[in-house]
Amino acid sequence: MRSFYGTRRGGVREGQVIGMLIWWGLLVAILVVVAGGFLKLKIQQHRYGEEVRLLEGRIRELRTMNLELRARISEATSHAQIMRAREEGRIGLVEVSDQYVARLVVPRVMGGGGERLTAQVQRREEGVKR
Amino acid sequence: MRWRIFLVGVVVSLVFTIYSARLIAIQVGEHGKFVELAAAKNTYRQVIPARRGRILDAKGEVLAMDRPTRRVVADSTRVNRVEELAKLASERLELPVREVEEKLRSGRRYVVLRHGVAEEVAMDMQREMMERNLRGIYFEVTSERVYPNGALLGHVLGFMNHERRGVQGIEMSMDRYLAGQDGFRDVERDRDGREVVVYRGLEALPRDGADVELTIDMAIQAILEEELEKAYRELNPWSICGVIVRPKTGEILAMGSRPNFDSNRPGEAESEGHKNRVISEVVEPGSTFKIVAMSAALNEGLFRPESVIFCENGRYFYGGRVLRDVHPYGNLTVHEVLVKSSNIGSSKLAQRVGEQKFYEYIRRFGFGEKSGVDLPGEVGGIVHPPHRWTKLSITRIPMGHEIAVTPLQIAMATAAIANGGRLMTPLIVKRIVASDGEELMTFRPVEVRRVVDERVAGMVKAAMADVVGPQGTAKLAAVAGFRVGGKTGTAQRVDPRGGYTPGKYVVSFCGFLPVGDPEFVCLIMVDDAKTLTTRNYGGLVAAPIFSRVAEKVARYLDIVPEEMVGVLTMADEQEGNEVVNKQP
């Protein structure tokens, strides 16, 4: 390779120097672009990772909160809790007459007379004499 | 000069060569070792815990579920300000400062400060640590098992040990479905211990446990347990238990025992309280067993219900011993033998059937073998084969002595009579549903075998209905508006050292309603009730408990009454009439 500062035989040719400079400049620029791009990608990747971590944490928190609330609801609506509330007088049982017990488990279209399907009506339909 | 330059060159080259060789050795030869060391420093396998499946009742009420908690752990090599952190942790976790400080200075990379910390406490502490830039304490996601109903149904649900494995009840028998599979993730942490997501490695998602739906109906369970608890306080027995079964399918609707335990705090109960007596207690059944002798005699065509048997006026000499009836009877029909609960009549029925045949009927009714219910700890009872019987056995076994059975076996045998002669496998698990809603398994009713002909079952049922009638031994088992069938049982308590304990009795009543088309069978068994000996009979102690339970259950199940009893009609109400008993 020829010396950058010229040769023994003659002075430095200007064109050669410019060419070399362009060549090195291009190389450095490419390297800078590649390295910068790589760095940018890495930083972006890291940032996205952080976002993923935060989101995952948030989802976990929400799921946990959901489970916690479900556990509390189950406790509050459990039979044991209702029985306790009844014993403490916070809630009471009301006698429900047979004619007011609507049969929700056997959905039926209301009759022509617009009569509600109650335990009493159903028994009458089934031929149970009362 | 040249020589010197040459020497320096050689030395420099030699040094570089040595360094190069060492570098190659480290980079290539010991590559694996150093990679592992580096990985161990910053990476670890994070366990992603699977959620344990829930246990639900037949109507979907949650009986057992996981509640999220945190395990607070410390990495003492990463703690920056020990005193400050120890003070904060001791305040929030309610631990002594000294204990926390010791753990934070231990030099260990993983030390547990506290298990089962509530979510909100952990979150607050984490927030404060971030604000004050403290590090070295971490909060692992864990969960604790919660049983919203406390002691209700404790024997059936069971509980879990510290390794989160079921050790009793459904928690144990269904553990393989409930447990699920933990997942994991290989992660790398930065200087502050935070995960570097970019370097996340191998990852496997957890598989949550499946939900187990039971046949138990909590409303019925609550009725049963309320009455058992009341009786347990009033009668102060050694134990009391009850079970309610749907005879057509064998589904168990309720099951309870006293003493009992709270599944949330199983360690606080005595060992006796952990015993599910319905499946693991063996007792001499007493007169409830007479249905076997009657069924066998009728099914073999040896007798008809109206056939007459002489009951020896209450004293029957056989095998050199006297067998007595509580009340002396002369001639009784087979039907009356059961209604009056005659020991002598039952023994004569069994004698006529013959030892081998009678033994076969005992086995056909499911005695002497496990019923196959999906609960751990079930025992099969004791039924000796005829070649081990004594001369007296054929007179004692028909009245429920010299034999040991579980309360569930009695209930299932009665259910076989109630449903027309088919012995069913008791069902306690209805279905298993995966966390994504997919149905993994459905448990259908299983008929074990036909025990007796349907016609014979009807005859026995009719006799059992009269047991609760005015002439029977269980008048107190009656339920207003319904025809109830059943059989009382009174047996002396077996002494574990041999023989019987004088003055102590195991009394029971097993009944069903309505007789025409039984919707449920209910057994109540009271072991050593503290009451007068003259009152300690199945018909006087267990039958009233049955009556209270059956009445409420019948109302809850909205069973159509067979008889009009105490009904106030709209017309009566308008006319201001009072409630009166009416016959249909």
Account of the protein in words:
The complex is a heterodimer of chains A (130) and B (584). Chain A has 2 domains: 1-92; 94-130, no CATH class. Chain A is 61% helix and 0% strand. Chain A has helices at residues 14-76, 79-87, 119-125. Chain A starts with 13 loop residues before the first helix and ends in a 5-residue tail after the last helix. With 584 residues, chain B is α+β, with helices and mostly antiparallel strands. Chain B folds into 2 domains: 46-214, Penicillin-binding protein 2a (Domain 2) (Alpha-Beta Complex); 218-556, DD-peptidase/beta-lactamase superfamily (Beta-lactamase, 3-Layer(aba) Sandwich). Chain B contains 19 helices and 21 strands. Chain B has helices spanning 2-29, 31-42, 82-93, 97-104, 119-131, 154-157, 169-173, 175-178, 218-235, 277-280, 290-299, 334-339, 343-353, 355-364, 393-396, 407-418, 454-467, 538-556, 570-575; strands at 43-48, 55-56, 62-74, 111-118, 137-146, 183-188, 203-204, 211-214, 239-246, 251-258, 308-310, 315-318, 321-324, 331-333, 422-424, 429-433, 439-442, 447-450, 485-494, 500-513, 520-527. In chain B, the strands form 6 sheets. In chain B, strands 2, 3, 4, 5, 8, 16 and 17 form a 7-stranded mixed beta sheet that branches. Chains A and B meet through helix 1 and helix 2 of A and strand 3, strand 5 and helix 9 of B.
